[in-house]
Amino acid sequence: MKINRAHVAYLIEQGSSLKGVAERHTGRSTIQALRCIALAIENPGTKIKVSDHYGTINANKLLCDQVREMVSQMCLRDFTFTQDTVSCDFASVID
């Protein structure tokens, strides 16, 4: 089972062991990534802050990377990314 990098980063920052990390696949980060994409489409030209539920800079960066990858996999276009935001330039984003 693949281990989510955000979970590992969070545990390391908290000084925890990695025991049991593989069982933590709850889908929360994926849901947050999809929400960011939906908000960007619903609000063209508005920068949407990408913030993971762990609340760490590293987790936020990993979530932004996940959003970027999901946008690419869904063949969406006209998205702009910064280190911690995503925005969509047009309401019609699907080829």
Structural summary, described in words:
This protein has 95 residues and is mostly helical. It contains 3 helices and 3 strands. A 3-stranded antiparallel β-sheet has the order 1-3-2, with helices on one face. The chain is globular, with a radius of gyration of 14 Å.
Uncertain residue ranges: none
Tell me the structural class.
mainly alpha
Number of helices: 3
Tell me about the largest β-sheet: 3 strands, antiparallel
Shape annotation: globular
Oligomeric form of this entry? single chain
Query: For the terminal residues, how far apart are their CA atoms?
Result: 34 Å
What share of residues are in beta strands?
Answer: 5-15%
Helix-residue proportion = 40-55%
Strand order in space, largest sheet: 1-3-2
**Average pLDDT taken over every residue:** 78
Instruction: Output the radius of gyration.
Output: 14 Å
Number of strands: 3
What is the helix/strand order? Answer: HHEHEE
Blueprint (SSEs and pairs):
Elements: H1 5-13, H2 28-42, E1 48-49, H3 57-73, E2 79-81, E3 85-88
Antiparallel strand pairs: 1-3, 2-3
Helix pairs in contact: 1-3, 2-3
Features of the shown structure:
95 residues, mainly alpha, three-stranded antiparallel beta sheet
Tell me briefly what this model is.
Helix content is 43%, strand content 9%. It has helices spanning 5-13, 28-42, 57-73; strands spanning 48-49, 79-81, 85-88.
